[in-house]
Amino acid sequence: MATTKATARKTATKTPQDHLPKAEATNDVLTASFRGVDVSVRAEDLDDYEAVTMLTKGLPDRILEIMVPDNEDRQTLLETCRDGSGRIRLSSVVEMTSGLMEALGAGN
Prior knowledge:
By secondary structure, this protein is mainly α. 52% of the residues lie in helices and 11% in strands. The protein has 6 helices and 2 strands. It has helices at residues 2-11, 19-25, 49-56, 61-67, 71-79, 90-104; strands at 29-34, 37-42. The protein has a two-stranded antiparallel ribbon.
C-alpha cells in the first residue's frame, strides 16, 4: 500500500505558478495602454509590500507613483476619475488603480 501512495505522489500534477512571479523573476517589463496613457513598469517594481498594502487600505497614491512615475501621465489618469460635480472621488481612483494593475497583468 505504501507503493501506491508513493506512485500517486510522483504522478500528481503541479499547480501552475502565478504570472506575476514569473515576470518578476526575469525582470520583465509590463506594458499597457490604459485610459489614454501608455504605462510601462518593471514587474519587480510592483513587488512592493507597503505600496500594495496601502492600496488594499484604500490609499492608491504610492502604487500609482510606481506604475506611473510621470506626473503629467498620472494626472491624466486621475482626471478620468473626476465625476460630474468636478470632484475626483477616492473610490474611483482606487477602482482605476486596480484596473490598471489588471491591464498590466499584475492582478493575475
